[in-house]
Amino acid sequence: MAHSKRGGQAVSTARWLTPTSGYLQGYTHTLNPYVGCSFGCSYCYVRRMPIGLFRSEPWGSWVDRKKADPATLRRELARANGKGPVTIFFSSATDPYQPLEATAGVTRSLLEALADEPPAFTLLQTRSPLVTRDIDVLLRLQGRLRVSLTVETDREDVRKVLTPYAPPLAARWKALKELREAGIDTQAAVSPVLPYSPDFARMLADAAPRVVVDDYFGGDGSGGRRSEALGMRSLYDKNGWISWYDPSVAERLSIELRELMPEKAIGISAAGFSPPSVDTD
Ligand code: SF4
């Protein structure tokens, strides 16, 4: 895939919060600071969404930052909070910690707005260790925010094939440790579970107080059809991993984790990403 790392164009947005209409279990809104995603994961479902399809450049090669005053978000939050509990999935169609975020600071300014007008719960979903830069703001949201850091495998050889532009795993393990030590509510999101080594469950249990396990079959919202359409089966086959392309893999990891962690610390598929009040575990 072409990967020019082009980015930085500012696109206007009239509002920050998008109502979810219930497609993300337990969330009232999504919040996306960027359009596009420079991590370009092979299994990313956003590739097949209008945003990924109706652009001439390949998914993963571009990212635009949204241009809006965080004061707009503050006003939106004040209004929405007045109507009932607001639960935000931050972010659903990009990673809020794009490499561009290091200089653009859009996510940081949105977090500051959230801290000023705190919603009932925010899930900050990322795979980037850059999230640790914002620990000071995250602490202002303590009790109302969880960081969900994606670690889909402990095998760097697998990551390099399936998500070559995503941050290296060692930096993510380090970020999990740093967040935990800072007292931030954190979970490791094994989403989707990729081929892993025998040490993986132990590493997860040591690194995070909570782990969510998801796969191509339960987690793509279409019983695995979206992942098939993305060509994941043939990519696995080509790399000699076809036995890992099976629903039993997530089940096996969950069983391994149950040997090491309390049952309630293990989330499964979409329900595992729900706000604490609607956890079904
Ligand atoms: S980080 Fe998330 S949004 Fe970005 S390409 Fe990967 S799966 Fe898609």
Q: How is this fold's topology laid out?
A:
Blueprint: E1 6-12, E2 17-19, E3 29-31, E4 34-36, H1 50-53, E5 62-67, H2 70-83, E6 87-90, H3 101-104, H4 106-116, E7 121-126, H5 135-140, E8 145-150, H6 156-162, H7 169-181, E9 186-190, H8 200-207, E10 211-213, H9 225-229, H10 232-238, H11 248-258, E11 266-268, H12 269-272
Parallel strand pairs: 1-5, 3-6, 6-7, 7-8, 8-9, 9-10, 10-11
Antiparallel strand pairs: 2-3, 4-5
Helix pairs in contact: 2-4
The structure holds iron/sulfur cluster (SF4).
Iron/sulfur cluster binds at residues 37, 39-41, 44, 46, 94-95, 127.
In short:
With 281 residues, the protein is α/β, with parallel strands linked by helices. Helices cover 33% and strands 17% of the residues. The protein is built from 12 helices and 11 strands.
Written account of the structure:
This protein has 281 residues and is α/β, with parallel strands linked by helices. The protein has one domain: TIM Barrel (Alpha-Beta Barrel). It is 33% helix and 17% strand. It has twelve helices and eleven strands. It has an eight-stranded mixed sheet with strand order 2-3-6-7-8-9-10-11. It has a three-stranded mixed sheet with strand order 1-5-4, with no helix packed on it. α8 (200-207) links the parallel β9 (186-190) and β10. α2 (70-83) runs parallel beside α4. The longest helix has 14 residues, at 70-83. The termini are far apart. The model has no long low-confidence stretch (mean pLDDT 92). Bound molecules: iron/sulfur cluster (SF4). Iron/sulfur cluster binds at residues 37, 39-41, 44, 46, 94-95, 127.
